[in-house]
Specification:
The chain has a four-stranded mixed sheet with strand order 2-1-3-4, sandwiched between helices. It has helices spanning 13-24, 38-48, 68-75; strands at residues 4-8, 30-33, 55-58, 61-64. By secondary structure, the protein is an alpha+beta fold.
Length: 78
Amino acid sequence: MKKVTIYSTPTCHFCALAKEFFKDHKINYTEHNVALDMEKRKEMIEKTSQMGVPVIDIDGQIIIGFDESRLVESLGIK
């Protein structure tokens, strides 16, 4: 099973879509609210050099934004 982490904020529509996608496909994930967690916000910026969310980390592969086709490919969903 791949390790999935999402950096998000509570008001981000695309973050909500990504989390709904994970739930629909029964993908376990770790969520970091970068609006409140400054350490995780810094971690996200260091990984991506930008502030936009969602940032999704799948076993070290970074996906910026809700890109369903890349998520399907990265997670091996048929």
